[in-house]
């Protein structure tokens, strides 16, 4: 009897081991890629926001504009001037395989961590990153802070992979009305940073405050600092940006232009005096430098 049940168990085990393997399970469906907003949609959205009196989202506009030149799905992205990580999050959400964020601030990447994102604390002028490594090198509102823009653009071109895209939008440029990033604080009396010394800027800001036109969030002394601290802005002329791109090696330039502001409505005497000081119309009204280039 015991012998019989042992034989039955052995037979069962043999049958089981000869049984065909279970059919292969279907692969789980890959996650739906997040479609980047189209450039046209953002332009219309920006126009709608402008009509509604809201600030247009220029950062999203430029992130989306860069996508017109390169599909970053599964690709490597470098964000120059990544600050606390917001741009890095954006490119991961669009499907980038990996993102490196580079900045000079100690709070680099504090707002965003992700397994595919790493941060490098360094200046755009000298990046401790290997050459030919990124499919998109992206910088928004950063180059106007970098002292040596030639070195920075050269580095951006060096680390771009062959076929990779370099995209930068730098604004507001120093010589424009809002060069020191003080918004509309001096709308009533433009270009104080080019016309006045530090005390003159302070006096003007205090006068505006006394007349109820104060800056919404910066004290007059902070506005003076915006003008006098050489570490905050690079003070480069508009054509220096254009020239810095024109001399790059192994690069096809797709866009290299300065976007200019509306030029009417200003005191012609003031504009004339600034031109006599040596500023060009492009300096005074050139708000944004936009470059898009592809590495050969
Ligand atoms: C106006 S913020 C823009 C940050 C980010 N791109 C954004 O739109 O939120 C400018 C950034 O440039 C960074 N920056 C300034 N000088 C830099 C340099 N030499 N190299 C790299 N980043 C720099 C600043 O620390 C800051 O994070």
Question: Can you describe what's shown?
Answer:
The chain has helices at residues 2-18, 39-51, 58-66, 86-93, 149-159, 192-195, 198-210, 220-228, 238-246, 268-276, 281-285; strands at 76-80, 98-103, 117-121, 134-140, 160-170, 251-260, 286-295. With 296 residues, the protein is of the alpha/beta class. The protein folds into 2 domains: 56-176 and 233-295, 3-Layer(aba) Sandwich (Rossmann fold), CATH 3.40.50; 192-228, no CATH class. It has a 7-stranded mixed beta sheet with strand order 3-2-1-4-5-7-6, with helices on both faces. α5 links the parallel β4 (134-140) and β5 (160-170). α2 runs antiparallel to α3 (58-66), α5 packs parallel to α9 and α7 (198-210) runs antiparallel to α8. The structure holds S-adenosylmethionine. S-adenosylmethionine (SAM) binds next to α4 and β2.
What is the compact description of this entry?
With 296 residues, the protein is an alpha/beta fold. The chain has helices at residues 2-18, 39-51, 58-66, 86-93, 149-159, 192-195, 198-210, 220-228, 238-246, 268-276, 281-285, and strands at 76-80, 98-103, 117-121, 134-140, 160-170, 251-260, 286-295. The protein has two domains: 56-176 and 233-295, 3-Layer(aba) Sandwich (Rossmann fold); 192-228, no CATH class.
